[in-house]
Automatic annotation (TrEMBL):
The keyword Amino-acid biosynthesis does not apply. It comes from Trinickia dabaoshanensis. The keyword S-adenosyl-L-methionine does not apply. PANTHER family: PROTEIN NRFC, PROTEIN NRFC HOMOLOG. This is (Fe-S)-binding protein. InterPro entries: 4Fe4S_Fe-S-bd, 4Fe4S_Fe_S_CS, ET_IronSulfur_Cluster-Binding.
Length: 248
């Protein structure tokens, strides 16, 4: 059985939100639209998005890191949102495994949102219907588009190619090779939903100051200095603050 999905490389995602804006533009003008922005600029902004990028700061200075984490519907192979829908509006397409919503049947009861452990469902306040990522089903099946454009809008828009699209059940596909060769993982597998979307883990680099360079940017730092505190190395003059500031 075919299972289309996204593989997201956290090493190269720069948090530019190109995927967010392209997703919003395509789906607002496509089969899912129009997506409501009730209060786009107020103190309490509200809007419907199929894809969001969450940004976190990790670590303790100077070994800090910024992590950009895109998240949308994971198109689970055993989606809990489907059986709880009282009208059958939520369903999993047999041809490619994409989880979709039939808007003509949706009554906006939010049962699917309560069942989804990933928070991937949103209620469109204007239409009173539950919405979510469709993997741009109306793009990938559109014969009017050139073959190279039959991909989700977010994949085409990503400037760093952090998003890969394909069939994870095909061992020779780009997504399957990326998962296999780079240790791709599922989000919260303990829920047994078998999410199809995978993430490629960030590769940690060893350094003494957070600059990412082997051995750090400190002048004359010894091989074991990276295990010492920043304060101790600073007092000995082993930290190049100028280089650290430029890097950050």
């Amino acid at each position: 059985m075919t299972q289309m999905a996204l593989v997201i490389d956290l090493n190269v995602c720069v948090g530019c939100h190109a995927c967010v804006t392209s997703c919003k533009e395509w789906n607002t003008s496509g089969e899912a639209g129009s997506l409501t922005d009730a209060r786009p600029y107020d103190d309490d902004p509200s809007g419907t998005f199929f894809n969001r990028v969450q940004t976190y700061e990790a670590g303790v200075f100077p070994m800090t890191d910024t992590i950009h984490f895109p998240k949308s519907c994971l198109h689970c192979e055993d989606p809990p949102c489907v059986p709880v829908c009282p009208t059958g509006a939520s369903y999993k397409r047999k041809s490619d495994g994409i989880v979709l919503v039939d808007y003509d049947k949706c009554i906006g009861c939010k049962y699917c949102a309560w069942a989804c452990p990933y928070g991937a469902r949103e209620l469109d306040e204007g239409r009173k219907e539950m919405t979510k990522c469709t993997l741009c089903a109306d793009r990938i099946d559109n014969p009017a588009l050139p073959e190279r454009d039959r991909k989700p809008a977010c994949v085409l828009a990503c400037p760093t190619s952090a998003r890969i699209f394909g069939d994870i059940h095909d061992p020779e596909s780009d997504v399957s090779r990326a998962i296999r060769e780079r240790g791709g993982y599922q989000l919260m597998p303990e829920w047994d939903t078998k999410p199809s979307n995978h993430y490629l883990p960030r590769v940690k680099t060893e350094s003494s100051c957070g600059c990412g360079k082997s051995g750090g940017c400190g002048s004359g730092a010894s091989a074991g200095a990276k295990d010492e505190s920043f304060e101790a190395r600073f007092e000995r003059g082993e930290v190049d603050l100028a280089a650290l500031a430029v890097h950050r």
